[in-house]
Amino acid sequence: MKLFKTLAPAVALAALPSLGLAQEAEAAPDINPYIFTTLLFLIGGFLVFWMAAGFAMLEAGLVRSKNVTMQLTKNIALFSIAAIMYWLVGFNLMYPGDGWIIPGYVGGFFNITSLEPVGLDAADAALDYASVGSDFFFQLMFCATTASIVSGTLAERIKLWPFLIFVVVLTGFIYPIEASWQWGGGWLSEAGFSDFAGSTLVHAAGGWAALAGALILGPRLGKYSKDGRTVPMPGSNLALATLGTFILWLGWFGFNGGSQLAMGTVGDVTDVSRIFANTNMAAASGAVAALILTQVMYKKPDLTMTLNGALAGLVSITAEPLAPSLFGALLTGAVGGVIVVFTVPLLDKLKIDDVVGAIPVHLFAGIWGTLAVAFYTGNWGAQIMGIVSIGIFTFVVSAIVWFILKALGGIRVSEEAEIAGLDMSELGMEAYPEFSKG
Predict the structure, then answer these.
(1) CATH number of 28-427
(2) Predicted pLDDT of residue 192
């Protein structure tokens, strides 16, 4: 007993450091949500980056062989320009919502994006939901996707440099401003508009910009005959177009799944898995709907329509990939596939030349997908208001930019250059030099 009384104070003193460590451990913030959400952004970001390859392959396959090099050049250039412009202007213009409009506020236009210090302390990092670097990287991919949509519509007759100048304006200003209205906490967000991953903010916006360009640029030579017929101009490589579609399908899991914007809890990661399943179902049903409908309408299934049907299904589910059941996702995607089959010939009747079908896929299916959100929210007014406001803003500003570029130096190549193909006339190199031009 005496020995215990003698040793007790020493034992207590020895235990104090461990008690202190325990208290520090209890007080330390939980860094797991920060780590897993940052990881979600990074994985989602590089999956969406891979969509750039998908757009490049899809467009390379759907244009004629004499224009393939031009499409590949535009796709790598537009992504690179988007990366720079979103760093210089776009990211800080897009966030914090309407703040950049306030007189005297310079955080949007003049505050170039910067990242965390190297080796940011974990305890400090946990105070935010994810790293700035991962957020910037992820959001950049959406910006670049918007520009990719425009590229395919205007293929085979637009000059390279005017197109790239338009990309500068689109990725640096047009997209960040309209996206800030929702994702930056702006007025559309406050009004109750909902667009989970960008059926309107990304896809329809790119479609509106493409439509403005197609109207001002005009159709390809010989596309529409004097007697009103549409002259088919088959793509050079349907294998590449199919590969591009599968790449885009894969990338969409990052596009929609990453837009959960959190993976730090059991609920969040479960929701991400649900988003993956719904996204896949919508793509599948869009493809099957287009496959069956073209068989019924044309007596033969159409591969290019089927490919675009899958993409339209993906665009359709993008506005709300979490709420639907698998059956709901199937219906949403199938309607997208049907929309493509009917709107591709509609554009031809209106003599609007869309080489790859980007306007039906991204604009029309994007509008449908955004409207479909109201089946879950019941807020039809906010959805319609978002579609109309973003449509008017993007179309009008894009048209102004296209008109200015046309007045300054022209946006269309000469007839001789178009007939010869843009690969040789604009770039001096061919994608398939050993084969005859198609």
Answers:
(1) 1.10.3430.10
(2) 97
